């Protein structure tokens, strides 16, 4: 038997259907993780998003290692990502999350850069690393909430004129210098890179010292620097990180 709810409403129009769809979309809840090294700014963004329906902040961090761990643990829909932070900034967070997820990278959140910088090289580097959009901190709360929803639903979002930087870069017309392909790797000194290669091949600290004609203590110092700069917690993780970059 057909219930009243199942009887089509003859007065429904395409506009009515669209309005109904939009209402359902607005009711969707997207989870958000905030990454910025200024606690006051994070607090302001959290307050702005709290006033917006359909958005829920599930965590925040002010440093790269903390951000990577928090994002992996909470699995948000969208990460609002500051670009300039110590230890590699937003690009390091993005790459670190993707490296940590590994084979599960398809389940990674969408990254939306939220930065004070509107420099072409920052925009291009962040997008090349995998961000879905880039907006500046001049954006107001309602616009930011809309940007979060749009990237969560698959759109690419940019503040005015920033999209042009990306288009110019991918069409070879950009005058901005090409960003480094791997900021973490580029941060290593020549000697640290040599130590990394030998570590990836399974050499012991003593064997590395003999190979490079340096002391074991110096090898330990270089290895510690490599772990810190690449945001890896131990040698096994470092070996996997190196393997994904064909280092060894």
Shape: elongated
As a whole number of angstroms, the C-alpha radius of gyration is: 23 Å
What average pLDDT do the residues reach? 80
Strand content: 5-15%
SS content category = alpha/beta
Distance between the termini: 70 Å
Which strands sit side by side, in order, in the main sheet? 2-1-3-4-5-6
Q: What is the ordering of alpha helices and beta strands?
A: HEHEHEHEHEHEHHHHHH
Helix content: 40-55%
Counted by DSSP, the helix tally is: 12
Number of strands: 6
The main β sheet shows up as:
6 strands, parallel
Low-confidence region ranges: 1-26
Structure description:
The chain has 248 residues and is α/β, with parallel strands linked by helices. 52% of the residues lie in helices and 12% in strands. It has helices spanning 14-27, 39-50, 64-74, 89-101, 120-129, 141-152, 162-170, 183-186, 190-200, 205-212, 216-230, 235-244; strands spanning 30-35, 55-61, 78-81, 110-115, 133-136, 157-158. Strands 2-1-3-4-5-6 form a six-stranded parallel sheet, sandwiched between helices. The longest helix is centred in the last third of the chain and has 15 residues, at 216-230. The radius of gyration is 23 Å and the shape is elongated. The protein starts with 13 loop residues before the first helix and ends with a helix.
What secondary-structure arrangement, pairings included, does this model have?
Blueprint: H1 14-27, E1 30-35, H2 39-50, E2 55-61, H3 64-74, E3 78-81, H4 89-101, E4 110-115, H5 120-129, E5 133-136, H6 141-152, E6 157-158, H7 162-170, H8 183-186, H9 190-200, H10 205-212, H11 216-230, H12 235-244
Parallel strand pairs: 1-2, 1-3, 3-4, 4-5, 5-6
Helix pairs in contact: 3-4, 5-7, 9-11, 9-12, 10-11
